[in-house]
Amino acid sequence: MSATESAPLIEAASACYRDSGRFAWYFARSKLAGDAVFTTILARGLLERCPRILDLGCGQGLLAAWLIGARAVHTGVAPGAWPNDWPAPPQLESYTGVEINPREAARARAAGAHFGHVRVTIVQGDVRHVEYVEADAIVILDVLHYLDRVSQDSVLAKARSALAPGGRLVLRVGDAAGGIGFTVSRIVDTAVALARRRRLIRLYCRPVREWLQVLARAGFSARIVDASRGTAFSNVLLTAQTA
Q: Which CATH number among 3.30.70.3270, 3.90.580.10, 3.40.50.1370, 3.40.50.150 corresponds to the domain 142-243?
C-alpha cells in the first residue's frame, strides 16, 4: 500500500487523538504509517468478523483507532478509497484494552471518547493479573517478551479461556533465531522498556519455532502470517485458533 493510498486511513484513525495533545496525535500518525502490522491486519482480514476485541498491551489504543478509522473509510463516512482486494474491516461492537503504563492508558481512554458507538473499556493494569473479558479476537503485539516464560504460558492459557468459540489470537513476537534482525529488535525493545519504566528489564525471547510449540501446548493451532522480511527487525506475526 502506497503512502498516498494509506493517507486517508491514517488521517481517519489519528483524528481521535487531536484533543489528546501533540504527542499523542503525532505518535499515532507515525506509528500507523511506519508499522506494517496495522496494514497487514486489514489486508489479510486477520480480525474479520470479530466484533469484540481484547487488546493486551494496548498502548494508547491505536489498534481500536485504526479499525474504527478503517470502517469509516470503508463505509464512506471518511474520505478515501478502500482497496479493492482487501476484505471489509471488522465492525467493532466492543473494545477492551489492557495497558500497564498509566499515561498511555489515559490517552487510550481519551481517544475512546471519540470511538462513537463502540463500547470501550481501558484497564490500567498488568496483563498477567487482570481478568480477561470474553472476546472474538485477542491481540498481543510485542508484549510477551517482556514477561518471564511462566507468565507467557499463563497469559496464553488465560487468552485461550477468554476466546469465544471460533475466536482467534493475533500476536507478534520476536524470533530469537533471527540473527542481526533479532539483535536490532532487542536493542529497540530494551530502549522502549527503559523509556517507559525508567529501568532496565530482562527480555524473555524465543525462536519462532518454540513460540509455535508454546502455542500448541496452550491449545492453539498457529501459523505464521508475516515474518517481516526485508526489514531491520526479526518480528513475526502469528495467528492462532483453538486446536
A: 3.40.50.150
